[in-house]
Amino acid sequence: MNTSTLVQKIWNFCNTLRDDGVGYGDYLEQLTSLLFLKLAHEYSQPPHSRELPIPKKYGWATLRDKTGANLETHYLDILQKLGEKPGVLGAIFFKAQNKIHDPAKLSRLVQMIDAENWLSVEIDVKGEMYEGLLRKNAEDTKSGAGQYFTPRPLIQAMVECVRPEPDRTIADPACGTGGFFLGAYDWLTRKGTRLDKKQQKFLKHQTFFGNEIVASTRRLCLMNLFLHNIGDLDGEPTVERADALISEPKQKVDYVLANPPFGKKSSMTITNEDGEEDRDALTYERQDFWQTTSNKQLNFLQHIVSMLKVTGQAAVMLPDNVLFEGGAGEKIRRKLLETCDVHTLLRLPTGIFYAQGVKANVLFFDAKPTDGKVHTKGVWIYDLRTNKHFTLKTKPLRREDLQEFVEAYKPENRNKRKESERFKHFDYQSLVARDKASLDIFWLKDDSLDDLDNLPAPDILAQEIIDHLEAALLSFREVSAALPRSKTN
User: Fold this and answer.
1) Quick one: pLDDT at residue 24?
2) pLDDT (tens digit, 9 = 90+) per residue, 353-402?
């Protein structure tokens, strides 16, 4: 079965389930659990004959032999028992639930998965199928899954700029469904690249390390990696289900590629003595942080610096407020410019994210020794926002839209960069002399302000208005959340 046929078959059944109120996210969870069991079953058969930590009574064959209420009850039992196991197995099934409450449709899904020999399907086909479902899930705005899905063309461009090398470690402290890992994997296995057996083993088992605090998203990430030949069924997960900001990193890595969660404040829900819920700001007390703050993005930025080896490199997506915020933000920016080589900033257009109201940037920087010297000589800023118009449906961001930036970046030799209309260099002294050391720098004229006869298409203009309003609402919510709450009797 070719890629398009398999993908269409999987999607068609998902559409059938949506008629019963089962969304892409719930469908993905069931597909992940069942597909994992089927793959484990295939690995246990000749010629592989691998011994895997799945008790026979919870194996794939037991699902195949049941129907009706017996199938539903047994499936629930499998999810619960396997979720208590260690390693990747327990991580995949941790807190997994059955969201398909029609036993007939559950049976049909089991039969559909059973009909394929998944080990005979090429890695690219399985991976493309799963990535396609993740993309569909991100488009389902009700699920909120878009926050975990970074546009793949953007990931590809970021990876092509950083150019990770074999036998190097790559981390993402908020890895979502694993998009950056797969982007790096595609780069390391691109056409014309030859890895020896040692490098292939390192790539499969020792390259990628991440954190994902949401159990269901971590499950999707682990399955996504496995279907792309990263990790193993009976191994230990390299994606931890933990808040990366809680403590100092356990190991230093060569590269960090990340899109940390947006939303200015870190907070948690607490219940008081009267049973009333309230939200309390989280402040991470870290000795290795330059500043203590409840701003989530500033904490992630500090954490990413702490993750890098002295020779490490980072490409990190950050919202606009990180570029200009005062107080702790200013102090962290000044420290970052001083201690690291912050060399490139890519200003991203609006309309490219599933979460609306996002104004973001990609910051590229290299770690440097702690020697008291100022390591940033200057920052090159590429403006891909002014007079650029995108929407997810009618004009999505494509890889070719980023080609000019990648070429200007000069990944093979950054010393050969040249200024252009959209690419400007700002030296260190001029940056730190700016109010609050702000990196929120524009120089291009917005043509739409003067040329009313050549406005963007109505759908693009409408989306940009929505994005601006969403961004404003997000700021108001953050201000509101920070205000003291009045008590009522």
Assistant:
1) 76
2) 877 667 899 999 999 999 999 999 999 999 999 999 888 888 899 999 99
The helix (run of H) or strand (run of E) holding residue 269 is strand 267-271
3-class DSSP string for 210-239: EECCCHHHHHHHHHHHHHCCCCCCCCCCCE
The runs of H, that is alpha helices, within 23-168 are 24-44, 60-64, 68-82, 87-93, 103-114, 123-139, 152-162
Q: How far is CA 157 from the centre of its chain?
A: 15
Alpha carbon separation from 5 to 1, 128, 129 (Å, rounded): 6, 12, 10
Q: How far apart are CA 143 and CA 214, in angstroms?
A: 14
Show the low-confidence residues of the chain (pLDDT under 70): 1-4, 7, 140-148, 263-282, 356-357, 448-457, 459-489
DSSP reduced 3-state for 270:
strand
**CA-to-CA dists, residue 213 to 177, 210, 218, 258, 378, angstroms:** 11, 10, 7, 15, 35
Task: Tell me how far CA of residue 67 lies from CA of 104, 107, 109, in angstroms.
Answer: 7, 6, 12
Secondary element (H or E) of residue 362: strand 360-366
* DSSP 8-state secondary structure symbol assigned to residue 116: S
What CA–CA distance (Å, rounded) separates 386 from 395? 16
Q: Is 441 strand, coil or helix? A: coil
For CA atoms 165, 166, 170, 176, the dihedral sign is positive
As a whole number of Å, the end-to-end CA separation of the chain is 66
Can you read off the two tokens belonging to residue 128? 């493309």
CA dihedral (465, 466, 472, 473) positive or negative: positive
The tokens for 443 are 């120089």
- Residue 37 neighbours by CB under 8 Å, 6+ apart: 54, 59, 60, 63, 78
